[in-house]
Amino acid sequence: MYLKQTTLACLFALTSQGVLAQALTLKSDYPSQYQVRQGDTLWDISGKYLEQPWLWPRLWNINPQIANPHWIYPGEVLQLSWVNGEPRLGKMVQGGKRVLRLSPKSHYESKANPIPTLPLSEIGPFMQTDHIFTTQQESQGLPYILGENAGHIGMLEGATLYVQGALIPGQDYGIYRPGTVYRDKQTRELLGQEAIFVGTARAQASLPKDRSRILLTRSQREVYQGDRLIPLPAQEMLSALFVPRAAPVTTPGYVVELPSKARGGGKFDIVLINKGAREQMAPGDVLDVLRPGVRLTDKYGKVSYRELSSLYDKGFHSAGRTPLPDESIARIMLFKVYDKLSYGMILQSQDMVSTGYKVSHF
Predict the structure, then answer these.
(1) Residues in contact with 326: Cβ distance below 8 Å, sequence separation at least 6, in sequence order
(2) pLDDT tens, 45-57?
(3) Which tens digit of pLDDT belongs to each residue from 50-80?
(4) Long-range pairs for 262-266 at CB < 8 Å and ≥24 separation?
(5) Which residues contact 333 (CB under 8 A, 6 or more apart)?
(6) Are the C-beta atoms of residues 258 and 272 closer than 8 Å to each other?
(7) Which position has the higher pLDDT, 45 or 225?
(8) Which region among 17-21, 175-179, 354-358 has the lowest average model confidence (pLDDT)?
């Protein structure tokens, strides 16, 4: 799934004083010039130049060569220069005109799509069809599937279904099923409830008794009676208006889940964390992921990993033993933020990220 009309705003000033104080450190093998290719992301290009790619707004913005720094297109040539002792990356110019190397077709900036911050193939489905119920009661007030006249329990793409609730004819809807209830592992506070994406439908007609007829246009899994409907945003309304920046200072959180349900995630995998708008998180925030320090047992000076120790040693020889220090192993960037939960993408990873790993500002 691809997002249309994606625009990316490069901010002139960053909000974090800590980020402003960081030096721009170039990689030893950075290219002096780079031609933007189809499929590139801003993160990838920044990673070719910077040891800390989330600082790319400073690398690109303060550059007199860029009349409009908001868009960078495939085919453009970027060139590194130095301003007041700091590196700056801009669009290469010759004779006062910007250089484009495109073939065989002409390039029209007003119609072309700029390159995104993150791979749209990975975050696109989450941007368009992802949803989390903020309360368990939220889903109860939504329109829901009544069934179809063929009497099938599991309904698939192409079926005509009936819904309890007034829908807007011609509007596209996502179909969802309430799933896992997320609670804080320490306080048991309700963080939200998973909305399992089932498929999409288009409302066809309004019917008496507050009912609607729909066409099931896509089924990712079988649709059941009682599944809920939420209007889908139009693709042209979706955008990735975020830039990398250090996340605000807050108490550490943790990885709630990997939506892939895998045991661990690496680069470009998605994670769900227990921090959101309530903690002033926003799309573009970058956080550290820390692997918990291993717990130990110490039996008369013989140190062992706790998980490999006997039940007796775990019970009698681990109390008071300080675990090894937590270790930073990955960086994630948030791209969709709810009140108490956020989705992020793993951008750098030295090891697999697992559920329960700590996330923190850096």
Answers:
(1) 290, 291, 292, 293, 358
(2) 888 898 887 777 7
(3) 888 777 777 876 444 444 445 778 888 988 8
(4) 263/352, 263/354, 264/352, 264/353, 264/354, 265/346, 265/349, 265/352, 265/353, 265/354, 266/346, 266/349, 266/352, 266/353
(5) 43, 54, 117, 118, 244, 284, 285, 286, 344, 345, 347
(6) yes
(7) 225
(8) 17-21
Q: How confident is the model at residue 109, as a pLDDT?
A: 40
Residue-level pLDDT at 353: 96
Distance CA 355, CA 273 (A): 9
The answer to whether 292 touches 353, Cβ cutoff 8 Å, is no
**Residues 174, 176, 180, 186, Cα dihedral to 10°:** 40
Q: Which amino acid is at 106?
A: S
Q: Give the torsion sign (CA, 231, 236, 237, 241).
A: positive
The DSSP H or E segment spanning 197 is strand 190-207
What does the alpha-carbon distance between residue 243 and residue 118 come to, in Å, rounded to a whole number?
A: 10
Are the C-beta atoms of residues 62 and 88 closer than 8 Å to each other? Answer: yes
Cis peptide before 119 (omega within 30 of 0): no
| Cα angle for residues 90, 47, 260 (degrees, 5° grid) | 130
HSE-CB of 4 using CA atoms within 13 angstroms: 6
Q: What is the pLDDT of residues 115-171, one digit of tens each?
A: 767 776 667 667 777 889 988 788 888 999 999 999 999 999 999 999 999 999 999
Mean pLDDT of the chain: 80
pTM to 2 decimals?
A: 0.74
Distance separating alpha carbons of residues 74 and 172, to the nearest angstrom: 32
C-alpha of 352 from chain center:
17
Residue 12: what residue type? F
Among the listed residues 253, 341, 344, the one whose alpha carbon sits nearest the alpha carbon of residue 54: 344
The per-residue pLDDT for 277 is 94
Q: How far apart are CA 89 and CA 81, in angstroms?
A: 6
